[in-house]
């Protein structure tokens, strides 16, 4: 790294010297050198800048021949950036200049680059036919030129050997990607022979590419030993020449080889070696992620193999049972069970690509099916046998068995079976070189699929026909026609429906295992029975789990149900993401409800088939547009009885990882229609797309044209009609349970603003919606809106405006979206709309922003000029965004005023920090920098050192989870000086970091005057480090100390805590979660008055505090000197009595505001016996003997109150009283029905405790076994006793009670101190 930096510095110095004296030729040459250095480091955008300088100088001041090198460089960089059109422009110019100069060497290079570009376009299905033809043309031209130059070298004989070998590799690789395996093998083997003839060094990098690709070819050809030999040679050469990336990818190929033969432990070892190598490199995040996904997938496949072994044991048992059942009435039942077991084994064997096993089990199934005279199952078995031979590349046998299967399917009139068999026959014929016959088979399959209305088979057949015409016959017109047919089929069958009717299901689905079945079926076969058996279908309806070559594999281990025949047409895809052309091809899926199935057969182009399909009834939608005159007058008649809907007013933070992207059709002010992305707030929670339509006076008065997005996962139209200032907006606002009425109002305001005429947007004023109401009743809760189900389209909800507020940044953002035809991001708009912050604070976290989609926002910030805080956390941003942001900051010219940059949890690399170092304005402005959760590695060390030295105002630095080690920590320590104003440092969850490095850092921090906040979560702290930390705590007034998961233990925790209060009285936030602390710590804490009155926030999560600790903590909370505001006791094994005891202690506590008691008990296991209320005056529980959820009186209590409604606003008092009254009445009736009152007493105790804890503002009772009904009853007590509006989040096992103004479900990394 240092050597590269030195070279780069020298090159830049030479460039500046040449520029100073006006030597344009040298200036251009050094610009090209700098560009190449940056390109080799992977900094393509920076390289592009220097190549542009080179090109400008060459075209303006120098002769055309000087442009050769820069055109070549520009073409290469644009290719790496996958900007193919730009790449082709410069590559073609490069070729033109080379031809004009009659320079054969440059002509060869230009042809090679053009071939590579068209090859990449072909792989990405961009104008496939033209791309593959051009790739072939330019690669062959490059090979001819390389051969000509080799035979007549300009200087010496071996001058162009390497290029000649690479030309063979390129042509061979193209054939490999076209699935012409034998031809690719021939070309690459010839290249190896040339290497030997020309005595090319045995460790030349050209050889490693040949071995790498030959390893892939032989793996596909199932020639395992040949594949292993070439892959190991590839790895050896890469290791010898120090090509770390090539070595890693070689290990990936070796892991794939082991995976193909089901040697999963060996595969994992290979992937682990590849992962270690990838982790040692910079900016290889995609490679690391893929390897990690491959490891997870192989582990999943290992589990499938384990399941298969267990099922084999079951089959053996059934075989033994069959021997006993012969001659009895149970014989047929045993046979059916054998077939069911064999279907499972065939399914699992296909999943792990164990084709010899598939063959074995399919033959056994055929034998059993023959015994019971079930022709359908016999045909299925024959098809599986044929497919097995196809995968094993025994094509003659495959054809024989497929033809047998086809014959039986024809006799049965089974169109689906015939169509799928024809596809497999086509694969066999294509593999044997009978291309015309193969195309005929695919065509017959399509005809049969159309006749049988089998849409998924139609698509498979069409894609195979498309492949044949593209790669076998070069028929351009037919290829295009077939592509149009495929596109049309996709449009007509959104979701790719696979309908399995009751008649399609196997007879065993209802009779298997039934003792009566064999009694009703005669043992002897007769023609009548055969005809009856023809009406039944095969039981094998489990679709195999296919794994896609190009997608992250861990997302593909799934199981759905489709016809067993689909398995024959679907091609094997459980291979891992093997590296192609010595690099990873990564396909990212943004919808987890869809799965790409790509064909593995060497003769079929990759297909993408979504398997999680909707039924036809689910796809149909209806538009029920309401008349503006239709008003709903009686809201109470539709009050929801559901008690699980949360209502936090916009405070529940959503995770981007759990929220699928949605889209919204909108119209620009110019009338252009585009799709606006949204993160889902205000839309259907299930992930389906839903629409918003706008009509009325906004665009044209009484305009009938509207656009609707309707939910596809509900039988009813979910659109609600809103009237705003006499204009109508229709939309579906049934979002997740975390959405509030406030969020709906924000969304409405944004939608209303987007549809305003351009002249009304000029001032940047956005509407403020005061409330929404039906008739005269104000809607305070989403529960009321959800009560409108079944009445959508008949109700008009009025939105009342409360004025307008200026949000200039929203105007600038939408303006720039229109300029670049970008789609406004609804979630981003809602973030910018936040009325509580000014335009100087830009918070756009969790908006699913990427380097391209953030461009309009950055352009808006460029126009806005000034901002004090920018939060881009939890997005998908990379180094390209950082470069643009640096330009925005530089152009702003703002030299004064603090700046906060929150960039955590993105995809930034170490060079992102380089942009900060290159922006002098930040030296005086940057106060807070949070770049945690980005893979910075130790390559960022020098950048961090520069930032700490130059940014004089920096008071907070967060570099958690950045994959840094001791080297970077030492650099940080060296960069700190006594003049630093640093107050906060977060370095947690990085490894490995040595104790000496941490100790040196602590010593340096001790010299700072303002330092007060230290986060070392996740670092393993030794005894010497703990001692150094204690010394630091005694010297400085630390206000925040985070030691979660540091393993300091009880003694270390006590030492550190005592040091914090050594002659100092300061309020402290202390995190000792998962540190091995016991209840003795709580006892010590409760008896030390200085600690009790000094700790403001305390986390003891994940420590065995137990019941003894809850006694001590209760005592501490009852202490009038206790100043705790936040107490986190998640996973502390407190038990039910401990939870209750702590809540009861809050009745006299005026300070505690937040209490987390999640995951401390399981009521269903702990609670069954009566309370022991006499002992020690506290509530205890005896050991459980019964199942509380089934047998205790609480069950009847909860059933009785399941219909309770708890209001949220002005109806709170009435609702709470009604709930309490209903609870009491229910308890009374429960007492009459049960001899014990423990259930009601349990509920009363908890309700009373929560009621008395009046100062509490947040309570987490998640995962303690509380039922939803029980949680609602507890919430009634919570809402009754709060002084401000109460809220809750109750969903699944989550139970959060809080009040307006508090936030729920905040990520730990986003919590502010």
What do these coordinates show?
The chain is α/β, with parallel strands linked by helices. The strands form four sheets. Strands 11-12-13-14-15-16-17-18-19-20-21-22-23-25-24 form a 15-stranded mixed sheet. Strands 5-7-6-10-8-9 form a six-stranded mixed sheet. It has a two-stranded antiparallel sheet with strand order 1-2. Helix 8 runs parallel beside helix 10 and helix 39 runs parallel beside helix 40. InterPro entries: LRR_dom_sf, TONSOKU, TPR-like_helical_dom_sf, TPR_rpt. Its main location: nucleus.
Task: Give short descriptive properties of this protein.
1313 residues; alpha/beta; 15-stranded mixed sheet; 51 helices
The outline comes out as globular
Widest sheet, order of strands:
11-12-13-14-15-16-17-18-19-20-21-22-23-25-24
Strand runs, count = 25
Q: State the helicity in percent bands.
A: 40-55%
The helix tally amounts to 51
Helix-and-strand structural type = alpha/beta
| CA radius of gyration | 35 Å
Strand content: 5-15%
- Average pLDDT confidence is 74
Low-confidence blocks of residues: 495-717, 1168-1236
* Major sheet description: 15 strands, mixed
Distance between the termini: 37 Å
Biased composition (Low complexity): 532-542
Subcellular location: Chromosome; Nucleus, Nucleoplasm
Coiled coil: 281-328
GO molecular function, one term: histone binding
